[in-house]
Specification:
The protein has twelve helices and 20 strands. It is an alpha/beta fold. An eight-stranded parallel beta sheet has the order 11-10-9-8-5-2-1-12. A five-stranded antiparallel beta sheet has the order 13-14-15-20-17, covered by helices on one side. Bound molecules: 1-deoxynojirimycin (NOJ).
């Protein structure tokens, strides 16, 4: 386990939308470099950058055409190497996004693979042995090329599935996981990883990490084995590099060798019950919605077994949001967000802050871009300051990759910095506190102290610290052990010999 993860607070950058340095309307690597001091000052000491490789951008770069080349719209490989160096100079680690399950349909491997004549890449992807032979239960395409076969998709139509084999081949065209063609795919993946790690990258966020081997096995044992093998390579040659999975099943992902696994808005883990529980029944029952019918037990029922089962193996990563989900600001006020973030940044595991969430950027209702669909509204340009394109780009508005928030009160970094009560300052303080107090960090002990159905507050311990949150509009009291020194608080809180009184929408940490 790389030691630095213990105290890591990540900042996710969607490169298209962070900072445009050359007026072409799209963010770029040099723009990120310009803003490293901002990220450092905020307190984040690690970055995750969404795919920045050459791509036709039918899925915003998750359709990779060349894994070893920075997309010209973001700059050059040299720019990215410089970013690694500049980040390291400031004590910031950089994770790239690794997309192991599929490539773009324009990747040279696929262009070879779809040829009728057998060649080195014929089995780099999953093909049936006839254009009229489909793949039961899986999405596939046929009739698009000279090769007489259908190929499997891993996500969108533009993303053919790479071939890591089948756990239990039942058709002649299904290769076993140890077939030379599947082993070659595995080696190709390692080669890509080594390429970036050798040039200064500090690890990867791994896209759809559970999607490698085609298997019905609910434990995904074969995919797990492949990652375990990769982890061995990392431990031997890159022991300080980190692997964070998009698996959303920490029990499996951490056994597979990932250091951390994201806790996403997937069904069955209670994450949405915290900040985004408005999809059913027309009411907002999120725990952090003031006056809603939120219930922390719904989250804990799912989270606690996962935490208990995995706490020795690695970390669960809470996110404020990501490029695939609606920003929490869609339904929560800044006051509600302060409490939600206070919770995320004081939980065990490695937290991730999505760019712009620190100033409460909105979710915008805008047309799709590059396969974003409803995700597009969370991917708009970072709002730096008043004036042209809110400081994102000096280019013409008409060339912007996505529109900036045009609301007169659109939050900006500049305004947020000036307002000492802003969400930004709360985030900054919380991150600083997490760095100072080891007991708030990734692997310090976590215990629930008070959590009752439909009741407030929620109280927990991190080591010897007591943390409590009351998102409700009522003043509440509870008896709980807590120290005298208040390290941080939001709202009105008083503590009198073990009796805690918390005003509406409040939070505290005591030592
Ligand atoms: C998950 C990524 O986060 C998402 O943006 C992408 O579209 C899919 N994987 C496919 O790569």
């Amino acid at each position: 386990m790389p030691g630095w993860l213990k105290d890591a607070v990540f900042y996710e950058i969607y490169p298209q939308s962070f900072k445009d340095s050359n007026e072409d309307g799209i963010g770029d690597i040099n723009g990120i470099i310009e803003k490293l001091d901002y990220i450092k000052d905020l307190g984040c000491n690690a970055l995750w950058i969404n795919p920045c490789y050459d791509s036709p951008f039918k899925d915003a770069g998750y359709d990779v055409r060349d894994y070893k080349k920075v997309a010209p719209r973001y700059g050059t490989n040299e720019d990215l190497y410089r970013l690694f160096g500049e980040a390291h100079n400031r004590g910031i680690k950089v994770l790239l996004d690794l997309v192991p399950g599929h490539t773009s349909e324009e990747h040279p491997w696929f262009l070879e693979s779809k040829k009728a004549a057998e060649n080195e890449f014929s089995h780099r992807y999953i093909w049936t042995n006839g254009a009229f032979c489909g793949i039961g239960g899986h999405p596939y395409i046929s009739g698009e090329c000279d090769r007489d076969g259908a190929y499997m998709l891993n996500f969108f139509k533009c993303q053919p599935a790479l071939n890591y084999g089948w756990a239990n081949p039942s058709e002649p065209w299904q290769k076993g996981v140890d077939d030379p063609a599947c082993l070659a795919t595995r080696e190709a993946l390692k080669d890509i990883m080594r390429f970036w790690l050798d040039r200064g990258c500090d690890g990867f966020r791994v896209d759809m990490a559970d999607s490698l081997v085609k298997e019905d096995d609910e434990y995904k044992s074969n995919t797990v084995k492949i990652w375990q093998e990769i982890r061995k390579m990392m431990d031997a040659d890159y022991p300080e590099a980190a692997l964070v999975s998009e698996w959303c099943n920490p029990e499996q992902a951490l056994k597979a060798g990932f250091h951390a696994d994201f806790y996403l808005d997937h069904w069955g883990n209670g994450y949405n019950s915290l900040i985004r529980d408005y999809e059913t029944g027309g009411e907002d029952n999120s725990f952090f919605k003031c006056g809603g019918k939120g219930d922390i037990k719904r989250f804990l029922a799912e989270y606690l077994p996962r935490y208990e089962a995995t706490k020795e193996d690695g970390y669960i990563s809470f996110i404020t949001c990501n490029h695939d989900s609606p920003r929490a600001k869609r339904t929560l006020t800044d006051k509600e967000l302060k409490l939600a973030y206070a919770f995320f940044f004081t939980m065990p595991g490695v937290p991730f802050l999505y760019y712009g969430d620190e100033i409460g950027m909105r979710y915008l209702d805008i047309p799709t871009k590059e396969g974003g669909y409803q995700r597009t509204g969370s991917r708009t340009p970072m709002q730096w300051k008043r004036g042209r394109n809110l400081g994102f780009s000096d280019g013409y508005e008409s060339v912007l990759y996505l529109p900036v928030d045009s609301a007169p009160d659109a939050p900006t970094v500049e305004d947020a910095m000036k307002d000492e009560n802003s969400l930004y300052h709360t985030v900054k303080e919380l991150i600083a506190l997490r760095h100072r107090e080891e007991e708030l960090q990734a692997d310090a002990d976590f215990q629930v102290v008070y959590a009752e159905e439909r009741k407030f507050p929620f109280v927990y311990r991190r080591g010897n610290l007591t943390v409590a949150v009351n998102p409700s509009p009522e003043t509440v009291t509870v008896e709980a052990p807590c120290g005298k020194e208040v390290l941080f608080k939001i709202g009105e809180v008083s503590i009198d010999s073990g009796k805690i009184t918390m005003g509406a929408q409040s939070f505290f940490i005591t030592k």
